[in-house]
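Dear colleague,

Thank you for sharing your sequence with our group. We've completed the structure prediction you requested, and as agreed, I am returning the results in plain text so they can be pasted directly into your records. Please verify that the sequence below matches your submission; if there's any discrepancy, let me know and we will rerun it promptly.
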Amino acid sequence: MARAGKEDPELNMLVGRPDPRVRRRSFLQVAGLLAAAGVAGYAGGTVAGLGDGDPPGAVAAADGQPIAGNRRNERLLNIYNWSDYIDDRTIPLFQAQANIRVNYDVFSSNEDLLARMRAGPTSYDIIVPTNNFIPTYLKLDLIEPLRQDLIPNLTNLDREFVETDYDQGNRYTVPWQWGTTGIGFNRAKVPGGKLDSWASVFEPDAAAEGRVTLLREVTDLIGCALIYLGKNPNSIEDADLAEVVKLVRAARPKLKGFTTDTYIDELAANETWAAQGWSGDVFQAQDQNQDVSYAIPKEGSLRFVDVMAIPKGAPHPANAARFMNYVLHPKVQARISKYVSYGTPVSLAKPLLPTDQTADPSIYPPASTKLSILTLTGQKLQKWQAAYDQIVK
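Please find the predicted structure tokens below.
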């Protein structure tokens, strides 16, 4: 995605001068320093250089008093999100305005997150699974209803993110960002400087051997392989899944590997030439290497929504609701979306984004693009997981 050009002045005021991208390790170091400063350091004011331009009234006034509705009487919030999926100002600004200290941790796959939640109670207040896993979370009773009375900014959501098949009316989830699954590739390394088919990663050329990666995610790996094979992307037919297993196992000797959290750096460093990946991640690699491009394959692909949810029995559900409300403010959505290059579920944020971002069909695909939204539950989850295990393990 092109970064050059004139950007919206209001957004420039919000985000200030561009900072180096916060990588997983460096963000945790920053968060640790902020936590060490203690909650009192944020009471009723701003941190120098961080409070300017923050939306007024996005959270309740910070008065140092306990917040009703929490199971633990603490001004604390524990967030578990994907790595490389937030700008470097949203957490400090929220802490400064809400007087709530944030501990921010990261994971790298939906499978890892689900296993962590199934293992037993945790201290997390917000987790960010992908929409197709929500039916499983509900069936296993792993998440609890939201305090919608503390999230008035739910009215900012576009209707398509409210009227969903996985959580009608946002009773359990609030969208974070959305995107597509496609191919990140290095134009200088691939023939003709262009890739437009899933064949480039599922049946890579000999010249690209050891330079191609696939996602270590059940939904993306199985769903996209089904699409490439011309099958129903929601198929649970044994014959279709057997073809998927055969296809990907045949590709394994030519792959660099399966990954969810290293391909950004590998694309940027020219170590990977083609990677099945998520749209915003590839744009992050492009920030570091202008030879990197993103394509939604001609055969079609998947669209996903990553959603915030509150684990069952979370210690600070009211604090979590206040953060969700903050994130749904258009200015905050614009700040996050601009930084991570994923789609925003709040249309009111789009006028605050650079026009080259909102006009980019790789971020906001036209209606003619063939995209499927998948949901994993019951027999489908079991069959897809079994096929995935045959491929990856």
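Summary note from our side: DSSP finds 14 helices and eleven strands in the chain.

Kind regards,
the structure core
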